Amino acid sequence: MGTHNLEELFQNKIDLEIKIEPKNWMPEAYRKTNIRQISQHAHSEIVGMLPEGNWISRAPSLKRKAILIAKVQDEAGHGLYLYAAAETLGQSREQMFNDLHSGKAKYSSIFNYPTLTWADMGAIGWLVDGAAIMNQVMLTRTSYGPYARAMVRICKEESFHQRQGFESLWVLSKGSEEQRALCQDAINRWWWPALMMFGPIDSESTNSDMSMKWKIKRKTNDELRQQFVDMIAEQVKLLGMTLPDPNLRWNEARKHYDFGEINWDEFWQVVKGNGPCNKERLEARKKAWEQGAWVREAAQAYANKQRTRNKAA
Ligand code: BYC
Prior knowledge:
The protein is built from 13 helices and 2 strands, in the order ααααααααααββααα. By secondary structure, the chain is mainly alpha-helical. α4 packs antiparallel against α7 and α6 runs antiparallel to α7 (145-173). The radius of gyration is 21 Å and the shape is globular. The chain binds benzoyl coenzyme A (BYC). Benzoyl coenzyme A binds at residues 36-37, 40-41, 44-45, 48, 75, 106, 108-109, 128-129, 132, 135, 196-200, 205-208, 211, 217, 221, 271.
């Protein structure tokens, strides 16, 4: 069968909502774009452990510490499911790590901002995980089977992450003047970077057209960002806090909140590696990789020994 017919059959399957599985024929560009997105997503989970890991030893109570450890561990698990999903497309895990460490592969811009106070743990849970879920719920229906299935479990865990973040800020928002100020300051610093997580505006989004046609993405960057603004603009009222945007207001005609201009120059600087913590984050990942070499070697030696024993038996 010619490539043209194969492409037509492939698109028909997508249109009929039939999942694409690892051994099915797929256009090379579909494979590549899934490897790109899934591996970037995996890297985001792994790098995303760093800003929060920074506060595990300083959590204000045993309860908060246990919650934070559980959340950071979940993120490691999400990274692993996603690396495994990308491997089914023929990309080796080693190559993915090399691409992260060399700076070739991207990861979410959000993790290049510092976590300055305890309130940042709440703001990350509420806003960063909140933005992540908004995007990931749609990905439970993405067309590539292994990615969609990984997302189902990830979304369940992410909703716990968001809840705990909101609850942590809720407690601060009902506390002393100083605690309220910490809460507001964290919201002020995380709001705009959280909006940037959804990616560039649709007209600048190079991958969206094909990803929408192939149902890898089911909603555009701007649609999801608007959904997120509408949700958070209501939730912030419960905290008695404000969002740092003088242009945020309900638009009755659109039935959505209008919001101010995102600083796209800042976004692209962060994506290009010039954000406040880009260098620190990559250094931390490279160091962890180097320091973990003996574990990988020991695991390999053990596997080899088992194989030899099994052959002999
Ligand atoms: N940061 O054509 P576009 C989490 C890049 S972590 C950096 O719209 P696409 C969590 C984009 O890659 C959440 N780069 O791209 C973990 C592209 O460059 P390339 C992570 C960005 O792929 C721990 C270029 O800009 N979630 O859950 O159609 C704690 C043009 O963009 C960003 C995912 O990864 C960005 N924010 O759409 C807490 C979800 N935005 O690759 C939480 C899966 C864009 O062509 N990914 N770029 O060189 C996606 O859904 C899509 O990849 C995106 C971007 C919506 C992010």
